[in-house]
Amino acid sequence: MITSKKRSKKKIFLLSLIILAIIFIGLSAYKSSKYKPYNAKEKNRQEQACEKCPKVSDVNISKATPETPIYFTLSDPNEKDTSMGGMHSNGFDYKNEMSKAPSKKVWLVFEKNKPISSFDLKTFVFDTKQTQKNIKIESKDDITTYSFEMPKSGYYNILAENETIKNNTLFYRVAKLEYLNGKHGSKDIYDDSIKKELKTDKIKIDLVRLKDKKEDSFFYTIAMGDTLKFKATLDGKPLKNADIAINLNSGWNKNIKTDENGTASFIMIRDYFPSWNDFNKRYKQNLLLTLTFNEEKIGRIGDKEYKSVNYILTYPLSYYPNSSDYQSYGYGLIIGIFIFTLSGIIVYIYRRNRTKPFKEIKYEE
To answer: For 270-283, what is the HEC assignment?
Structure first.
């Protein structure tokens, strides 16, 4: 009888250890999949999305043609990262954070992150209050860097404008980058005034992202599955029937048109499907919007005359996996652990009830 009780206690103890080990392993795996840090291996995996893009060392610095769209990027063309940049990269570039306001550097490129050399441009920067600020321009090795200070949290807009006449056509190009700056511990308050549209007469054509009501933080990021809505304007008025090309660095692309009110919307596709143990919620991908519109219009710039205008505006964005995507991995893991543990308990109880303990029978004579 005593031996049977000892065996039962030993089985219960071993089963408890097994259950605890399974729960610990499951929680560790879930935590690592949800909060997976950046490392060299992960960075290389992300860069494979555009591994066929030419490296800067393989490309001769050249001028873009009047027909070629130009765009801003957060990625240094001198480095191997060939992404198109984005507007939600929350962070700072500090040279001396004790004596200088934080600043951000951007580069103007075309095609697959090819840097632009000498170029006739007008550049503008607007801070969180939509006030025009100074922009610092530096050139080194035929690559131009544009930098601006970000003393406050909120949206900063940088614009570049170029006008070129070719074959009686005015090619009017605008590169636009809207950058959301955020800092933990900042006293700045996020409210509806932060999300208001930038209105300026510095450029003729514009593409404005209409903020969603759920955007309530300086650290908001666009996620796969979100619906993005934009409004195109020409000379401050809604631009209807304009073309918007959507190009993701993963290779997916789509073309849409603006409606009578100059608005257009699309849903961010889900194109990130790694195995559950490789899932990284901070995996960043990029897209580039290109707004184009043509009109018959006679005019003159200097001694050159044009009879039509070709408008081209670019707008880069970055986006991340949807929170529901990586939460589903965690929920599935927790449910699996629960079912496995419950099954073990049921099997143990079933086997214990079928086991007949040894009984000592005494006969009195």
So the answer is: CCCCCCHHHCCCCC
Reported as a single tens digit per residue, the pLDDT across 305-348 is 999 999 999 999 988 887 666 555 565 666 667 677 777 777 77
In terms of DSSP bridges, do strands 285-301 and 263-267 run parallel, antiparallel, or are they unpaired? unpaired
Whole-angstrom distance, CA of residue 135 vs CA of residue 147: 6
Do residues 187 and 170 share a domain?
yes
Is residue 135 located within the same domain as residue 269?
Answer: yes
Of 139, 147, 146, the closest CA to residue 100 belongs to 147
16 is a domain residue: yes
Residue 178 placed within a domain: yes
Q: What's the Cα-to-Cα distance from 75 to each of 115, 119, 278, 332, 353, rounded to whole Å?
A: 11, 19, 25, 37, 67
Going by their DSSP bridges, the two strands 136-140 and 143-149 should be labelled as antiparallel
Residues 269, 349, single domain; the answer is no
Domain co-membership, 265 together with 339: no
Q: Read off the pLDDT of residues 241-298 as tens digits, 9 standing for 90 and up.
A: 999 999 988 888 999 999 999 999 999 887 776 766 676 777 788 899 999 999 999 9
Contact 103, 147 (CB under 8 A): yes
Closest by CA to 178, choosing from 216, 208, 151, 199, is 208
pLDDT tens track for 9-28? 666 666 666 766 666 666 56
- The reply to whether 365 falls in a domain is no
- Residue range of the domain that includes 233: 36-321
For 22, other C-beta atoms within 10 Å of its C-beta total 15
Are residues 263 and 346 both part of a single domain? no
Kind of pairing between the strands at 169-181 and 304-319: parallel
- For residue 34, pLDDT beyond 50: no
Q: Domain total for the chain?
A: 2
